[in-house]
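@channel sequence for tomorrow's demo:
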Amino acid sequence: MAKQVAIVGTGVSGLASIKCCLEEGLEPTCFERSNELGGLWRFTENVEEGRASLYKSVVSNSCKEMSCYSDFPFPEDYPNYVPNSQFLEYLKMYANWFNLLECIQFKTKVCKVTKCPDFTVTSQWEVVTQHEGKQESAIFDAVMVCTGFLTNPYLPLDSFPGINTFKGQYFHSRQYKHSDIFKDKRVLVIGMGNSGTDIAVEASHLAKKIWI
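structure tokens (generated this afternoon):
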């Protein structure tokens, strides 16, 4: 009897995990809390609880030859650095090509993962999920958590004395979607990672002045 594997999330890692399980003769069941695959690469106008968020202008920061799955290259007409909308379409093509959709349960939230009482003997896990308000429990031989690490923002307000009396607006890059919010404003960007530099460049076109 094939081993049952629970996979959490349908982003880049989640989809690859489904495919690898199928290739190894395992039976994967993938749980996706939203109604569409794509994980980080699925842009939404509003920040959604429990999933990563990206801004409208995001493109891949590595070229398409380095960003693709090894056995499924990007279409030749895609640009070298792929916009998020095309990256999402690529992931959908990947899922369809390898028949991964039949293994995915959409709009299903994983509420709890615990070791079974006989874990020392069976190595099995109990996974509790919720779909349309109804909870269900199932037993799996393995669990693969593919939710990424960009879900919870780090905003160390204690490190900024006076922030409580600041009369302007402050927010984490997770909340950023479009550059028009910076029009004619004085903007300070803290951090020079990928998001910080992207946002600083976009803000520079509209802001009155910008500091990094």
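heads up for whoever presents: The CA atoms of residues 6 and 161 lie 45 Å apart.
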